[in-house]
Amino acid sequence: MESEVRDLEPDLRSRIRHENAVPLMDALHAWMSAQRNLVPEGSGSGSG
């Protein structure tokens, strides 16, 4: 993505980055939440 926006104005680059990053972060959060439900309570990763 960076190579595609390299020559654009800074404000436009920022907007495009944001438009692309938000859906990716939302998908990552959903995946992480689903994975968390698979970890047993009391395990090192499941505590908290």
Q: What are the key terms here?
A:
2 helices; 48 residues; mainly alpha
Q: What percent of residues adopt helix (DSSP H or I)?
A: 55-70%
List the quaternary state of the chains: single chain
Strand content: under 5%
Query: Helix count, per DSSP?
Result: 2
Rg from C-alpha positions?
17 Å
Protein name: Transposase component
How would the blueprint of this fold be written?
Layout: H1 2-5, H2 10-36
What can be said about this structure in brief?
This protein is an all-alpha fold and 48 residues long. Helices cover 65% and strands 0% of the residues.
Give your account of this protein's structure.
This is Transposase component. It comes from Pseudomonas amygdali pv. eriobotryae. The protein has 48 residues and is mainly alpha-helical. 65% of the residues lie in helices and 0% in strands. The protein is built from 2 helices and no strands. It has helices spanning 2-5, 10-36. The longest helix is centred in the middle third of the chain and has 27 residues, at 10-36. The mean pLDDT is 88.
